[in-house]
Amino acid sequence: MSTDAAHETRLHGGRLVARQLKAHGVSKLFTLSGGHLFSIYDGCREEGIDLIDVRHEATAVFAAEGWAKVTRTPGVAAATAGPGVTNGMSALASAQQNHSPILLLGGRAPEMRWGRGSLQEIDHIPFVRPLVKLAATAQATADIPGLIAQALTTSMTPHTGPTFLDFPLDVVFAECDVSELAPHQPDPAISVIAHDVTHAARLLREAQRPVVMAGTNLYWGHGEDALRELVETRRIPVFLNGLARGCLPADHDLCFSRARSTALKAADVVLLIGVPMDFRLGFGDSIGTTAKIIVVDVAPSEREHPRAVTAELYGSVPATLDALRQESGRSVDRNAWLSHLREVESTRRSAEREHLEDDRAPLHPLRIYGELAGLLDRNAVVVVDGGDFASYAGRVVDSFEPGCWLDPGPFGCLGSGPGYALAAKLAHPNRQVLLLLGDGAFGFAGMEFDTLARHGVNVVGVMGNNGIWGLEHHPMMSLYGYSVVATLRPETRYDQVVEALGGHGELVRKPSELRPALMRALTSDRPALVNVLTDPAIAYPRSTNLA
Ligand SMILES: Cc1ncc(C[n+]2csc(CCOP(=O)(O)OP(=O)(O)O)c2C)c(N)n1
Ligand SMILES: [Mg+2]
């Protein structure tokens, strides 16, 4: 009996990993097999954490990021020692730039023979560290729970972001006495109310032409309800980018998108919420030179602002927005400003109609989105992965709820889509999950249709197949008059690839075939790909794609 009791108090390192993950509410681990991870798998099996195995470690990490993006809780991936971790690096960098709270668990060659040339031996920490908020190696089995708790807490602390732990084979396979374990660390309380509110509230109250421009940290900061209350009370037009899309429904009377350049140039006060003045805002130049800028964010900006700002409010986003609403008092009449922007918005939307209904074959990429608009539920999750095809989606696909728009973010890494979509559908099995893919983008992670099929995850892929790397081909043509290394095979049957991997495939050559193909894909009991042949002559109208 005493032997049994003693046995029950001893757990192996992998079990400790899983137990601590579970204590933090983690229910899925995205991974690709490797012997260094076996004890973690065993632990997950014992603790009831689902193992979702993919075909490339980048996808495992992108899936962890996708999970974080749709649930606002940490996503967790495990990659084997050496090449498993190096394969996950692009996705870690993506999570860093998107402030996505994830934890990557790495296998690691055994500590007892460190430096003697074990299989897959490499020290991950020095090259992972610049991409994460915390990078550490478990030196002893008993340290594992404390490290997992610390990593998850760190990833969720503003600015949220990725963390990394690796586990030497001997440390994670060894057992330890549970009485030696570190206590569970509580999640951080994030309710600091920002200072400088009174000044900002006065600016907002006196503004004739105020604008809210909100981005990803509005979403991470759970600011959507407070934003809505603020702008409804104070009648302020709203523009959203990144993960903030859907934080005010696209059909709300204060939500705009097409009038953004007009609004930012003409505004007298711009309230930037959780959005950096990076290339998407022309490094600040998208905003008129005389406008006063108020910055609200979950924490001080990691970069210096590229231009002067009048007030900076850091801390809890809902608390800050509530305080701004309460203190900004009765404001001036903004009806003229709002109706001017609505007019610009409506004119630009009408000008798109021609393309959304374009009848050419091969299709205009916008025709696909014209057709999809009528088939998507309000809570559909839309994932985009590609060049021009994704940019067109960004321009015309409307979002109505938070966490329904997943683009790669400022790191712009092709191949993120299948991992994001896998996680989104696992998190929301009853919602439509659309994966909008370029034909070039498909090449990075197209094998993940096998993952989707094996796990019964019915994502619906829609491909704009123009036979080129469009976003590279067209700019190079316009700069040099020719293009190199930007051509793919025309009319490749990616739909047949998906069929071969266990999915449902459709080929669409003409607009009339599109709607029935989309309907079949949306009602299929398998993951699907609608391979739509699009016109390679169509270039997304952009001024620059490099800076
Ligand atoms: C990992 C990675 N490699 C290369 C690029 C550069 N790049 C950006 S868009 C693009 C073309 C994408 O082509 P496709 O997916 O077919 O979409 P299209 O532009 O043709 O609509 C490339 C190569 C990138 N962003 N990420
Ligand atoms: Mg293409």
How would you describe the overall organization of this protein?
This protein is of the alpha/beta class. It folds into three domains: about 5-180, Thiamin diphosphate (ThDP)-binding fold, Pyr/PP domains (Rossmann fold, 3-Layer(aba) Sandwich); about 195-340, 3-Layer(aba) Sandwich (Rossmann fold), CATH 3.40.50.1220; about 355-535, Rossmann fold (3-Layer(aba) Sandwich). About 40% of the residues lie in helices and about 15% in strands. It has 23 helices and 19 strands. Strand 18, helix 23 (about 510-525) and strand 19 form a beta-alpha-beta unit. The longest helix is centred in the middle third of the chain and has 22 residues, at about 335-355. Mean pLDDT is about 95; it is low at about 1-5. The structure holds thiamine diphosphate and magnesium ion.
Label this structure with key terms.
single chain; 547 residues; alpha/beta; Rossmann fold; 3 domains; six-stranded parallel beta sheet; 16% strand; disordered N terminus; binds thiamine diphosphate; binds magnesium ion
Report the structural category. alpha/beta
Measured on Cα atoms, how large is the radius of gyration? Answer: 25 Å
Report the sheet with the most strands, covering strand number, pairing sense and barrel closure. 6 strands, parallel
Mass-distribution shape: globular
Task: Kindly provide the name of the CATH class of the largest domain.
Answer: Alpha Beta
Strand order of the largest sheet: 3-2-4-5-7-6
**From the 3D coordinates, which CATH architecture of the largest domain would you assign?**
3-Layer(aba) Sandwich
**What is the CATH superfamily of the largest domain?**
Thiamin diphosphate (ThDP)-binding fold, Pyr/PP domains
CATH level-3 fold name of the largest domain: Rossmann fold
Sheet-strand content, in percent, reads 15-25%
Low-confidence stretches: 1-6
* N/C terminus separation: 69 Å
| Helix content, binned percent | 40-55%
